[in-house]
Amino acid sequence: MGAYILRRLLLVIPTLFGIMLINFALTNVVPGGPLEQIEARLAGSGDSIAAIGGSTSDAGLGDGSGDGYTGARGLSPEFRAQLEVQFGFARILCAEGFTGTPSLKNEACEKEMIPFWERFGIMMWNYAQFDLGESYFRKISVFDLVLEKMPVSITLGLWSTLLAYLISIPLGIRKAVKDGSRFDTWTSGVIIAAYAIPGFLFAILLMVLFAGGSYWQIFPLRGLTSENWESLSWWSKITDYLWHIALPVTAQLIASFATLTLLTKNSFLDEIRKQYVMTARAKGLSESRVLYGHVFRNAMLIVIAGFPALFLGVFFGSSLIIEMIFTLDGLGLLGYRAAIERDYAVMFGTLFAFGLIGLVVGIISDLMYVLIDPRIDFEKRAS
Questions:
Q1: Number of domains in the chain
Q2: Locate the ABC transmembrane type-1 domain: which residues (predicted)?
């Protein structure tokens, strides 16, 4: 097993490299970039440049009248050159023997554009040292930005996944035991309806019904905690936290709950019909002993071992719309805004971190199979 894990860990490096290379290449051929994004902002507001730490006078964008810049003429060449250096698209080269601080304002220095392959190499070298860079527009490191948004996504992902398992496994087992009964029929109808309802539509329904839309004002619509959370007692803090996450977690739960229930039912049905179950019953074992002593471990293998992957999918992939509806500032919104703003530092930094986590979770999923059923040997299967 150790050799198999080592091979999988070594495969993480080329796989992650390929993911980053493809996305880096695609991003560089797609029209628009951070500089064009700044130009678009300036076209609507002369103060938007403050978001990147400059000013109209310092950047050379004014016309000398002191009235600011409206963006009608785009970025000045001098300021554009400064941004290209700041964002890592270019570097400053100075004449041989130059001893001062490299600056585009010095006649002995000039700008040189950095080739595509070299920029990618610099980025990957920094990522190998877990230096994810700094956001272009927010003046905060990508690592700190991810940590800041992490609690929201962990809340949605972890609670949704745990509740899905706590509901789906007992329900799926019950449906398998009562296969074809009235209970199985009407619960299947509910599950199919739940699976067919988009998560965002269910979230809006919950908001209309229970968050002051048209009926009851029971749950809040913003954040994970109340403004006075720090002053609350420990019990009130727990209650306040659960009160805030009730609706978004419920909305996030609906699709995964339906899928897991049907998966559990089908797994149990497959195992119940096998010969060893008939033999166990023939020996006089009770039905509960047959189900939970023999069938459960085999049937639950694929369900329980898939927990890390399911959590990762909910954690990274399906929380954007829920975050937008319930005003939760998590990783979903972070990635969306980075793509819209062309904040390449955040885009690639989070892609690297999430890609690495995803590949490691894949290995953990394989280990879960072995822990649940020691008869599985990936090393022999690979050889």
A1: 1
A2: 150-369
